């Protein structure tokens, strides 16, 4: 079991902002996960992988694929309090889910 968080690299987030967006995405997708998957993921160490995307469009396309595969997922939009304009799409979490199923969505992306 794992979760992959996809971060936009074209919006120029600082390291702290990026870390916060990853956390928002992870928690949001986790909240939409069924209890069996939650327990399996938590019991297995809550594996997370962070990868890069180059556009908002790419995040939405990946979210569509995750939806079709029945994977929990969450798009994050920034509140606009610091570095970004309100509503800026920053990250997508896919999973938690079975490794091979999550890889069908995010397996071609480069590590952050």
TrEMBL record:
Keywords from the named record: Cytoplasm, Hydrolase
Domain of life: Archaea
Primary localisation category: cytoplasm
Catalytic activity: an N-acyl-L-alpha-aminoacyl-tRNA + H2O = an N-acyl-L-amino acid + a tRNA + H(+)
Record bears the keyword Ribosomal protein: no
One Pfam family in the UniProt entry: PTH2
GO cellular component: cytoplasm
Biological process per Gene Ontology, one example term: translation
Any GO molecular function: peptidyl-tRNA hydrolase activity
EC number(s) from the headed UniProt entry: 3.1.1.29
UniProt xrefs under Gene3D superfamilies: Bit1
Keyword Acyltransferase assigned: no
Entry's localization field: Cytoplasm
NCBIfam families named among the record's database cross-references: arch_pth2, PRK04322.1
PANTHER family cross-referenced by the UniProt entry: PEPTIDYL-TRNA HYDROLASE 2, PEPTIDYL-TRNA HYDROLASE 2, MITOCHONDRIAL
Family: Belongs to the PTH2 family.
Function: The natural substrate for this enzyme may be peptidyl-tRNAs which drop off the ribosome during protein synthesis.
Name of this protein: Peptidyl-tRNA hydrolase
Native source organism of the sequence: Salinirubrum litoreum
Gene: pth2
